[in-house]
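Q: Given only this backbone (338 positions), what sequence would you predict?
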């Protein structure tokens, strides 16, 4: 299975394949960047640079190490291969975008989140001490090779982390996908996994092709669940909760908000709550988090403007758009535990 993503400078293919075939397509000329978990789990064979696993590696110091490693490699024509989850994709991708003013990038996403979200769309970057993803670029890959069998070693919590984004695509764009997830929860060994991954990639492709550089507001719908989710991650200082878990809570809270605003039905709240819980994802804002602090964080969200807070909200399952000028009192109500 494959699909093509078009962008202003050309296009690239996204191909569903397996680890053996990815390894067969790499050569000693490639500059393979991975992390220590993936190097062990996926048996990365070619000479490579393995950074410590985790978000902390998306920092300036590791980025510098990747650049310096690239400068020690003899073949300057080789491509950078980002072999790993979203952290490796963003980090190695940003190194590819900037090393010698930009070299070819091949994405090999090995986490579900990287397969359905971060490897497609051309955004790469690193974190600064002042905030996440503050330094970055648009640098589309030359291809995305997805070794689906790498999901076999992905920890279940990380699988469910990616599933939060899959549920999101269903909620914002694809009622049929949403219903299929409701009736049969997706597991790493589900028969339909290839079809679901490809369907999510096609949704991401459609959105990024319509708004490549995030200037038209179309990409904003991908933010469903993320305004609240990011605020929760910020309040927890990005420790102790995975991104997809915060987004799952965020989708339920934002469905409540949509209901309060008369945008979406109450049934969206209960359907998301039931489905996400069955997927092993949390659905309630932790009681320990100060609701006013969450709203403070939302004011710093890039969608917020002069008119107030902004949210990507779902009306009917499968239909979503950006709503601006949302009152903070309504947001506080949506954050109450019932
Ligand atoms: N560029 C974008 O458009 C975009 C979009 C969404 C998210 N992101 C970024 O992606 C990052 C999160 O990505 P992630 O969730 O993949 O995190 P990650 O890269 O840290 O991977 C999660 C964990 O799973 C491990 N892992 C990955 N694949 C494995 C496998 N096959 N077997 C065993 N272990 C494996 C990793 O070592 C890590 O411990 C964040 O930094 C986020 O900002 C970027
Ligand atoms: Zn996300």
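A: Predicted residues:
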């Amino acid at each position: 299975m494959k699909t093509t993503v078009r962008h202003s400078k050309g296009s690239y293919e996204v191909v569903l394949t397996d680890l053996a075939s990815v390894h067969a397509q790499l050569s000693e000329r490639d500059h393979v960047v991975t992390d220590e978990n993936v190097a062990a789990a996926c048996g990365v064979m070619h000479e490579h640079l393995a950074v410590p696993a985790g978000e902390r590696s998306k920092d300036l110091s590791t980025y510098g190490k990747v650049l310096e490693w690239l400068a020690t490699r003899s073949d300057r024509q080789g491509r950078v291969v980002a072999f790993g989850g979203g952290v490796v994709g963003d980090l190695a991708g940003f190194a590819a975008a900037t090393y010698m003013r930009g070299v070819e990038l091949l994405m090999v996403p090995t986490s579900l989140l990287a397969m359905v979200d971060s490897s497609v769309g051309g955004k790469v970057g690193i974190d600064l001490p002042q905030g996440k993803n503050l330094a970055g670029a648009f640098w589309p890959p030359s291809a995305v090779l997805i070794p689906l069998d790498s999901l076999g070693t992905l920890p279940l919590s990380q699988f469910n982390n990616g599933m939060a984004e899959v549920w999101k695509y269903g909620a914002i764009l694809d009622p049929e996908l949403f219903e299929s997830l409701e009736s049969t929860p997706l597991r790493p060994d589900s028969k339909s996994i290839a079809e679901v991954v490809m369907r999510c990639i096609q949704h991401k492709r459609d959105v990024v092709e319509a708004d490549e550089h995030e200037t038209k507001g179309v990409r904003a719908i991908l933010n469903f669940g993320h305004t609240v989710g990011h605020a929760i991650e910020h309040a927890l200082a990005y420790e102790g909760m995975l991104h997809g878990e915060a987004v799952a809570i965020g989708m339920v809270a934002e469905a409540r908000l949509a209901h309060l605003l008369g945008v979406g039905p109450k049934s969206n709240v209960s359907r998301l709550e039931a489905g996400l819980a069955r997927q092993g994802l949390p659905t309630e804002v932790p009681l320990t988090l100060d609701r006013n602090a969450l709203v403070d964080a939302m004011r710093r969200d890039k969608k917020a403007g002069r008119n107030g807070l902004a949210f990507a909200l779902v009306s009917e399952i499968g239909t979503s758009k950006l709503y601006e000028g949302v009152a903070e009192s309504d947001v506080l109500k949506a954050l109450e535990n019932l």
